[in-house]
Design goal:
globular; transmembrane helix; transport; ABC transporter; ABC_TroCD
């Protein structure tokens, strides 16, 4: 269906229901990922998003293996693990060996559940694992698109609602706690939102690639501005733009999966931002070296006298 539809051209793209559903759901998912991702990068918790991608895969396959909707397993697993990581806080940090072992074990559980599902529940249907890993945004029907949009809207509102105290706690945790900000509770709630966003993003780009949608637009926003509120909206706009561009490219070139095109655009945006900001910083440094700040004779004399007194 997608291949045949692509022949009608870009102007007729939105005549197809599957495109309407993909853009409708994808816009909300990308907006939530952009907002949550900004704080994820700010708090240096991007690795948590990677952990939740492993959990999303296992949770979805566990739900399918026991005969319930994969989305139930997605949200239950990612939100539970996200909140648990928030409760553990600094105590939950382990060395690389422990982290690698746990991740491998979680993925192993996912493979086990996939095997149980394909051999017992669906008589050899092996497409479920591919769908969870790489997403199926073009396969969303109207009801699932509405559900995804409503959940994404809730995530955006919740993130904005806790944005100010969360920003305070992220920049200076000790001072925020001294001023009465519930730092621990905010951390748990935020990672719960990250878990829900990861579950949402899995429907669009899959568990394997969701980290890119969370991190790439937010990383670009952090490089473009040091103002937090501006950065939040820039991250959101970049994520939504990557979603729209990726869906459009995948529609025009139906052999390319939408998850790849979405992440390719997001990654290219971050790479371009990195190149431009690095070049600008080098030019400023070179300009400072060529034209060093001048000092008056009086200030030099004052500095010397100060040194002598010390």
């Amino acid at each position: 269906m997608i291949a045949a539809a692509s022949g009608t051209g870009l102007t007729a793209m939105f005549d197809h229901p599957f495109i309407q559903h993909a853009f409708f759901a994808g816009t909300g998912i990308a907006a939530a990922a952009g907002l949550v991702g900004y704080f994820l990068v700010l708090r240096a918790q991007v690795f948590t998003g990677d952990a939740l991608s492993h959990v999303a895969f296992t949770g979805a396959l566990a739900a399918l293996a026991i005969g319930i909707d994969a989305r139930v397993g997605l949200f239950a697993a990612t939100i539970t693990v996200g909140c648990a990581l928030g409760v553990l806080g600094r105590r939950g940090r382990a060395d690389d060996v422990v982290i690698g072992s746990v991740f491998a074990w979680v993925l192993g559980l996912g493979v086990l559940f996939l095997t149980l599902y394909t051999t017992r529940r669906s008589v050899g249907n092996g497409t479920a694992g591919v769908t969870v890993l790489f997403g199926s945004i073009f396969g969303l029907d109207a009801s699932r698109a509405w559900e995804a949009s409503v959940v994404a809207a809730f995530l955006c509102v919740a993130t904005v609602a806790i944005g100010r105290p969360l920003l305070f706690a992220s920049l200076d945790e000790a001072v925020a706690a001294a001023r009465g900000v519930p730092v621990r509770l905010l951390g748990v709630g935020f990672l719960g939102l990250v878990g829900a966003t990861a579950a949402e993003a899995t429907q669009a780009v899959g568990a394997l690639l969701l980290l890119g949608l969370l991190a790439a637009p937010a990383g670009a926003a952090h490089r473009l501005t040091a103002r937090p509120y501006h950065g939040m909206w820039i991250s959101t706009v970049l994520a939504v733009a990557a979603m729209w561009a990726g869906l459009t490219v995948s529609y025009l070139a139906p052999r390319i999966p939408p998850s790849f095109t979405i992440l390719a655009v997001a990654t290219a945006t971050y790479a371009a931002t990195l190149a431009v900001t690095s070049l600008t910083a080098r030019r400023r440094a070179a300009s400072t070296d060529v034209h060093p700040p001048t000092t008056s004779p009086e200030s030099v004399t004052a500095d010397r006298s100060t040194i002598v007194v010390r």
